[in-house]
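Morning run. Coffee first, then this:
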Amino acid sequence: MTTISSGDYEVGVTEAGGGITFLRLRGVDVLRPAPAQPAVPLDLSCFPLVPYANRIAHGRFTWEGRQVSIEPNTPGDPSPMHGDGWLSVWSIAQLSADRIVLEMRHSAGAWPWGYLARQTIAADPGGVSLGLELINQSDGLMPAGLGLHPYFPGRSEARLTAEVRAVWLTDKDLLPTDLAPPDRFGDWARGAPLAAAELIDNCHTGWSGPAEIVLADRDMLVRLTAAPSQRWLHVYSPPGQDFFAIEPVSHRPDALNTPNPMGEGVIALPPGAALRAGMRIEAD
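And here it is:
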């Protein structure tokens, strides 16, 4: 693990999964801290979603007449999710006291496009910024999406405020089925608790960009902002656990199997072109 810091912020970073292992403000955890020896990438405090976010239904889709099939990558889930980055080892390209740049190269395989992913994590006295870049290194158009998956502590007393237009309901495999009003799981516009009795694992559309998270158990207000490319907000709040995730992503789940993937946020990335995303966390 590598540690970067600036002012009162300190961040732990691991090359395994290109993930964050802790983010602290004056010694208090802003993100859910990872165990000393994370057993799986899902134990991390935050990890990158590249080259797509969330699930692809049963790992199958068609792109420009090409049939693509990807094996599941999470036990018990028939649909692969979150891409390759969180399951790969990244390398440190640059490092200073307050900034780290990680890179991961993917050769064409089950995901039949080669790409370079680059992640920049930087601390400053006002907060922590994460930048994510995806560069198509194949000879054809690549479907592309990005996201970040931060986990926060204290679900039982946490509240979320965010402006969204609608939310996708899901089936038993957690794949989108129908759009519902934005307050189906909580009136996020007014600030609603995240400790619902039912599982929340749903993508919200039309996110305006900022979100405020009250971590009442530590008397902390967290402000999360994202790049303009990320206007979908995935909320994950599991009953029986005292953590949750607020994920800024660039497309809805299973967007590749919709009649208009680009309308749902997928980018057709030309050879040599780059897609960029990012997130900033500030806490008081």
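DSSP finds no helices and 25 strands in the chain. Good start to the day.
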